Amino acid sequence: MYVKMGLEPPLQNSQTLFVSSLLLFCCFHDASALFSSFMTDSSPKPILAYILSQPRSGSSVLSAMLDKRKGIVSPPESSFPQVLGAIEAKERADTRWLAALYLGATCTPTPLNLIEAQACMVGSDREILTSLGLAVAHKFGRDAEDVRAVVWKTPRTMNMQAGPISTDGKFIVLRRNPYNVFESQFRVGFGINNRRPFRFALFRESYEYAFARLPSERLLEVEYDSFPGVVTDIMQFLGLPDDGDWENQSGSAELAAASCDHMAEITQEFCNRDTEKRSNLKPEQVALLKRSLAQARWFRPFLGPIRNYFDRSSLTHMRFRANRALKNGKWESI
After folding, report:
1. Of all residues in the chain, what percent are helix, strand and coil, respectively (each to 5)?
2. Which end of the chain is more exposed for a tag (fewer CB within 10 A), N or C?
């Protein structure tokens, strides 16, 4: 019947499965061959670094500033570096699941799809995180051989640092005036739970608890008020020369801004308006927050379980997102 109509007969289920599997294999093989070429023995290995901060402290701005500097690539915001050090061995051995976890743990759009991410899931945590960074650089038209540092922005899972610490990476801890961080909770939907001063103060101290556990010899602490000049200090901390900016400055920040309205500002020239923003707080809010910050400091040594609770909840949500991507057959970033 199909021949008479001039049509190709439909593939049987087994044929369809075979063809689909063959296409996926070819795509994975091509991506694997491409991305593995980034990590040749002769090429210098980029160093790894991690931007850590309480949310709404300016880590997106800092990541965007660093990503423009030649020699640095800052992948989309992700908790994947922490996830690698927290998952079970069975999960760790499944490269496809690792790729899905990367997509599930990445908070802003990534240029990598599942097949491209899976091609990077080979070797140690350091090798995987470096390969992902170089793959992102390649997608943005940057020469992987020019990349000297991969700087991950990872501000959400603070107490799961075994993975990043094991990579011998460096840590950049960013702080911002707590009154500004508190004020910003009223301008984003995800800040709704931290609009009560004492809860906000405890949440902030849980981050300080986690920061105190980082290796001091690999740690640089910076302030939001030192932007943009602090980029020079960070370059020196990373041991990188100042070679100016990338010729192609389109990167993760621009990709995020295209789909997230609240991220659009980070692609513009930096302007510190914190003094103006603090004036949005009412006097009674300032007084209550001041008292709450002082009281919460006494709880810092006991906030490990609270931080662990937040991190476990985040990890559960990342696994859910990863499973959803696989079940829906979603090969693009989520």
Report:
1. 55, 10, 35
2. N
pLDDT tens digit string along 11-47?
Answer: 344 444 343 444 444 445 555 555 555 555 556 789 9
Q: What pTM was computed for the model? A: 0.86
* Torsions phi, psi for 212 (to 5 deg): -65, -15
Residue in 101, 122, 120 with CA at minimum distance from that of residue 34: 120
The answer to whether residues 256 and 136 touch, using CB atoms and an 8 Å cutoff, is no
The CATH number fitting domain 26-327, selected from 2.60.40, 3.90.550, 3.40.50, 3.40.1350:
3.40.50
Determine contact, residues 327/108, Cβ cutoff 8 Å.
no
- What are the structural domain ranges in the chain? 26-327
Query: How high does pLDDT run on average in the chain?
Result: 86
User: What is the DSSP pairing of strand 149-153 with strand 72-73?
Assistant: parallel
Q: Provide DSSP, 127-163.
A: HHHHHHHHHHHHHTT--GGG--EEEEE--S-TT--HH
d(CA 154, CA 63): 10
Distance CA 186, CA 213 (A): 30
pLDDT in tens, 134-147: 999 999 999 999 99
Q: What burial class does residue 70 get, using C-beta atoms within 10 Å of its C-beta: 0-12 exposed, 13-18 middle, 19+ buried? A: middle
